[in-house]
Amino acid sequence: MSDVRGALRHGLAWACLCMLLSGCAQRSDDAIRVGIPTAPLTLDPRYATDAMSARLSRLLHASLVEFDGAARPVPGLAHWRGVAPTRYEFTLRDDARFSNGRAVRATDVVATYRAVLDAALASPLREALRNVAAVEALDERRVTFELRAADAQFPGSVTLGVMAAEEARAPRDGWHIASGPFTREARKLDGCLRLRRRADGAPIEVCEVKDATVRALKLIAGEIDIAQGNLPPE
Fold it and tell me: Residue 186 has what pLDDT?
C-alpha cells in the first residue's frame, strides 16, 4: 500500500511540474535573465545596505578599491599609497569614465564621500566612514583622505560607489550617470530591472522570484538563465 501511495505522490508531483513548466512565459528577447529571491531596496550607493542592493549597486557604481578572490584589496577606479599613518592618496585611472563618456575626476570622489559624511543626508553608511576626518582633491586625478586615527587597513574601507559630482547630493535614487560596468534602464511592466553592459551593450534583466521552487522551475524551463539564492535540494 505504501508503494502505491508513493507512486501516486510521485506521479502527482510530476504532473504539477509539467503543468508549471508548460505555463512558463516564452522569452521575448536575448537578454540574460537572473532570478533573485528579493528585490533590491535601492540602487543608490549612498543608501545600499541590504545584500541585494549592495550587489547590484556595485554593478552600476564602481569604487576606488575592489577585492580579489582572496578578499585582498586591489585597485578599482584608483591606485593608492600611504603618505602618512593617517593620510592616503588615491590616483584615478586614466580610463575611468562615466556612462555619459565624461572622465571620473577627483571632484566626483570628493563629492560622493562628503555627501555620505554629511549628517543631513542621513546615509546609513556614514558610521562606517567615521574615521575619515577630511577628503580633498589635489588635482583632477588625485584625492587624499585624512584619518582621525592611523589605520593600516583603510584602503579596504574605500568601497563606496563613486557618483558624478552633480548627482552626489540628488534625492535617493535620483541618479542617472553610472560609473560601473553597467547602466540601468527603466523597470519593465513585469517588475524586472533591466541593466545594460557598457562594454558591449548586452542586456541583463534581474527579476524577483521569491519562491525558491518557482525559481528552480523557471531555470529548468529556460525562462531565466541564472537562479541566485538557495534552491530546494529536490
Answer: 76
Q: At what angle do helices 212-221 and 2-22 cross, to 10 degrees?
A: 70
In the chain, the amino acid numbered 85 is: P
The three cell numbers of residue 88 are 592616503
pLDDT single digits (tens) 104-125: 999 999 999 999 999 999 999 9
Report the distance separating Cα 154 and Cα 160, nearest Å. Answer: 13
**What percentage of the chain's residues is helix, strand, coil (to nearest 5)?**
30, 25, 50
Which element (helix H / strand E) includes 36?
A: strand 32-36
Q: Which amino acid is at 79?
A: H
% of the chain exceeding 90 in pLDDT: 81
Dist CA 113 CA 159 (whole Å)? 10
Instruction: Name the β-bridge partners of 67.
Output: 73
CB-CB neighbours of 163 under 10 Å: 28
Q: Which of 48, 45, 1 is nearest to 179 (CA)?
A: 45
Task: Encode pLDDT of 138-179 as tens digits.
Answer: 999 999 999 999 999 999 999 999 999 999 999 999 999 999
H-assigned helices in the chain: 2-22, 51-60, 106-117, 212-221
Cβ contacts of 170 within 8 Å, gap of 6 or more: none
Sign (positive/negative) of CA torsion 128, 64, 152, 113? Answer: negative
Residues 6+ apart with CB under 8 A from 111: 163, 165, 168, 169
